[in-house]
Specification:
nine-stranded mixed sheet, about 10% helix
Amino acid sequence: MRLSLLHLLLTASVFGLVVFNGYDHTGYVFDDSFLTFEYIGTCEPGKTEVVDEYVPPSNEVDVYGAFPKSRLLFLSNGLSVGTPVADVVVPEWVFDHMRDSAVVCTDLPVEFLSPNVLKVLSDVSPPMLSPLLEDMEVDWELPPKNLFKKGEVISTLPTVPVISIVDLPVDGVALSLMASVSDFSQVELEWIVDGSRVSSSPLIVLPPGDYDVTLVATDSHGLSSRGSKRVKAKPFLRVVERLKCELGVDCGALAEEPGIEIFKALKTYGLFTFIVEATDTTYPKVSVSISSEKVRGMAEDPSGAEVFVYINGRKGDRLRYGENTITAVGVDAFGNVSVVSTSVTLGGDVRDVLNLRSPFVVGWGR
């Protein structure tokens, strides 16, 4: 239940409170009614109280000397309060009220619109307002701002915390719950699971199962909020997936060479293990190029390949005059073999024989 500042004031001091604000010489009476007044004079900022009262001598008493002819109240800070003359001059009804009231003096640029609402008359920071509210000995909250601007209206009434329960995905656990709380003051938390208090931290982790969860948040003013929800914590899974792929075809970034690669990924509700078996069953792509009398063999393969060139059955790379049989053999690292064979007749300039004036590339076969 929310309490008004007026109620809090009355419970803090049964006699009431009088506030003097030197910024605009406006005073405020806080008791069973909220009244304002104007005064003359200066009151030193801070909390004070009435410590003595002066009553003028009766006309029937024979006295000597010049005595004040009106009543005066003396504050603990040494100032006097009166109606016609004093350090602080107030209306008669305020004077009568002050005998049994606490007194707070300030010089801040604020105006009380009601016991729990302030209007800012000139820019003011929260650290400037805090001493005023503390001297009044009431429960209060200020919005979390660095500066209150002129014309802004501020509520100092403490409010209950605004809470919610958030399902927070955390890899590797069954279920985690986080408290989301909005309040202007410090808040204490209490998690209740299936009727038992389990934690006061912002985050809790639950094993697999179904639960009735309640979150209670209590701020520094004793104001509380609670929220409940039914939750289901799923079992933690261990998943193994086996994948096969072909290098140069569908392995992509999973593997760069044949063999078995193991990847682990921790995801919400489970640990996933991927076993990737990469194979290389494709044959190397082999080709032959001829430039003048020189023969060169080439091969393309995802895992790399070595090329062996044979001319007329002998390992070599130069043509002889006459008819030549060229054979190129490509072997990759995993024993996949491709063979390319072609015939070339060399007589004079081989390029004249082949009717070519540029490097000559022949086809390939397995």
